[in-house]
Amino acid sequence: MRLLFMVASRDILGRRGESPVWHDPLEREEHLVLRDGRKVAWTWMGAEDGIPVVALRGFPMTYLLPGEGEARLKKAGVKLYALSRPGYGNSSFDAKIGVLEDNLIALRTFMDRVIKTPCVGVGMSNGFVPLLAEQQANPDRFRTLIAIGYTGVLDRSGINRLQSVQKTMMRLAGPAPWLAKLVAKSGHRMMRQHGVDWYLERAYRSRFLDMQTCKNPNVSALIRNACEHLLKQGHAAFVRDLQLAVEPIDSAIESLSIPMRFLAPTKDGVFDETAYRRLEHRTPNIRVEPVSDAGELVFYQRTDLILDRIIEAATASDEPHETSHVKAQAPTAAR
Asked: Are residues 202 and 195 in contact, defined by beta-carbon separation less than 8 angstroms?
């Protein structure tokens, strides 16, 4: 299997000295073209004609579901669109505009042309930021939001609990992006020289649970594919995504008008239940759900639980926001 992976990795490399070309292993990738020629790409999992759910990935090396996960979605009649945000995979980014604006242009165009109806939005890590910003700008865009893992915006104090390298990069991204780019460029060059395993070893070696997941033969190929999906467009796209995580959109939490569930892994090194529970006091529409035995790679460690929540939200009756607001208050009042 290791030899096969090495051969496959070599096979998908572009011209020598350039970034690898990312391919959708499901062979379902589609794309639309913006007026300026940029591409917005996505793939999908589950039921081809199912209830639409839009998912945006973030920094963690998680993107596509294992086969049994897709089978569950198909059985439930749910179609999970995995949108490649600008800079990921084959979706272009525009360095001339801000990173949040770039993400919102891609998301809105995709929603308007492909989805065309209110749906559930799922954001993994900082991939949640554009969903939250869009909900504030267009309150009828989504029916429910689900955040998975540390997002930045939902707990600003969490940056202090990140690993030292992550914490430093996050703090550099805003005031000194040139320095963050220099560090990221060095890391990207080493990854291209030594392979994806080199990157994964350094990203997760201090987190036993996540490192064990990387070695799990049932998901290791998906993790490597997600790594290539993230790094395909080089270090500049990576630094822009760091900047997205620190975008000042905190007011969107207070103005949240739809139900939101925050699935918070307890072993990601950032989890602080006291800090997270404050979210439920900031707005009654938010429900925090600690996820035990899960780290940064919670998408693969607790796949069944995450799919339970996605399917529940997607198949729930589409009630008016006022009704949903009242229902969301009940758990908070009980606590």
From this structure: no
Copy the structure tokens of residue 243.
């900047």
Query: Which residue reads 């020289």 in tokens?
Result: 193
* Of residues 295, 151, 299, the one with CA closest to residue 222: 299
Give per-residue pLDDT as tens, 268-283: 989 999 999 999 999 9
Q: How high does pLDDT run on average in the chain? A: 85
Q: How far apart are CA 65 and CA 44, in angstroms?
A: 10
- Helix H segments across 255-319? 273-282, 298-301, 303-315
Helix (H, G, I), strand (E, B) or coil at 264: strand
Residue type at 59?
F
Q: Is the pLDDT of residue 330 over 60?
A: no
Closest CA to 300 of 67, 56, 80: 67
The closest of 85, 128, 76 to 105, measured between CA atoms, is 85
Question: Model confidence over 189-219: pLDDT tens digits?
Answer: 777 777 778 878 887 888 899 999 999 999 9
**Cβ partners under 8 Å of residue 330, min gap 6:** none
CA-to-CA distance for 163 and 90, rounded, in angstroms? 29
Q: Is the Cα dihedral 12, 15, 16, 20 positive or negative?
A: negative
Token pair of 71, please? 């089978």
- Count the neighbouring beta carbons within 10 Å of the beta carbon of residue 108: 15
294 SS3 class: coil
Residue 104 vs residues 31, 43, 131, 302, 313: alpha-carbon distances, Å: 16, 18, 8, 29, 23
